[in-house]
Structures are given as C-alpha cells and as structure tokens.
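cron nightly-structures :: item 1 of 1
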Amino acid sequence: MPNKIALITGASRGLGRAMAAALTAKGVTVIGTYHSNKTEAEATAAAIAAHGGKAIFLQLDTGAVASFPAFAAALRNVLAAEGRDRFDFLVNNAGTGLHAPFAETRESDFDALMNIHFKGVFFLTQTLLPLIEDGGRIVNLSSGLARFCQPGSSAYAAMKGAVEVLTRYLAKELGPRGIAVNTVAPGAIETDFSGGRVRDDKNVNAFIAGVTALGRAGLPEDIGGAVAALLSDECRWINAQRIEISGGMFV
C-alpha cells in the first residue's frame, strides 16, 4: 500500500504500535497520536524507522473534544509536508480501561470512558472528515466484551457497543464518498492495557487461554496484522462489519 497515509490514535504503544508496525511494513506512512508520553512515541517512531518505515507522532487527548480543531490544523501541516492535503485511513484506537463492578462504577469514571471511547471517537471523526480521502477507510476499535460478558466491564463494554452502532451509521452516511467503515473487536491481548492484567497475571492469562478456541491469549501482532489486512485493497468491499479478532473466545 505505498503512498498511503494512515492516522492511528494511541499509536505509541500496545495495539496501536502493532498496527503502526504492520502498516509501515506495507509501505504506509503512519501519523500516530500519543497522549502524554512523548519519549515512548519517539521510541516507537525510531523502531519503525529502523525497519525502513515512517511514523510521525502528534500529541492528542482523544477525550478533549475542544482540542480537535487545533489538532486538525497540526495534522494539515504534517500532511502538507508529505505532499498531501488528505489522508487515507483513520484508525480510532486510543483508549483506557476500567475494571469495576456495575454497582461500584463512579460517574466520573463513566464520563472519562465515554469521552475517550465514544464522544471522542464521534467528534474526532467528524472533525477529520474533510481530511479523509474519498474512497478511504475508517476502522473503529471495539472489544470482544461487547459480545460476551465479564463482570467488571459494564461501562467499558457499553461504550464499545455504542461504537459498533456508530460504525454502521458512518458506513451508511459516508458511503456516497466511497468511505468504508468497519469495527475491529479484539479479544484479550497481552499488552499493558488495564494494568497489563492479561499479560502479567498468570491466572488471568491461563483463564483466557482456557476459554479461547486457539488455546492462548492474543498478542498485539495478531491485531496489528489483521488491521493492516483489513485496510488492504483486497478488503475494499468489506463495509459496515464487526470483525472480532479473539482467537475464538467463548465460542
């Protein structure tokens, strides 16, 4: 996919970093965002450059809607430096976790999740629409938890369910521009997400392996490669779909 540009939110670590690595390996230039850890973002860009790819990072708080116009202006400058005025792929990946029983979930935690996982996705996509190429693609991140239920994930999963509905509406309304919009729903992945529970807690990891048809927890590369494949020309006719990438959890 040479000469394509992808914008990936939360690309400095975890799943976003794996997506950036997989896309740059295919010749896509990645513009990634990071929330606060500039050093981590620079390390990710350097690692990608060491493998012949190109990643450029911009700071963005995806839960702060008021900052989106300024971010779009900064993005225009980066695109201009690349000889473009639009980009091809938007991946709404940035996110945080919350593990709390329904009865103990605080309003402040709920609002923080909503701002990042749903409101931010809604309005960042809206803000960036003029910068997305006709015939481009949007991938929104959901979760396997929007299909199966695990106690302690009610607020997080509800936000992801909202994103899945939004995805279908975006596919319908952006269809006249030839923009395909899909949801990717990872299962449990070994990253630092939610304090690294799946990666670092042997009991949690063993439980995940036991309820997964392929017998292990997921790895970041499992998701990165799948997103890169979904954005390839071979998958251009996939639209308005929820694609779970979980190795067969709870089937």
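cron nightly-structures :: done
The mean pLDDT is 96.
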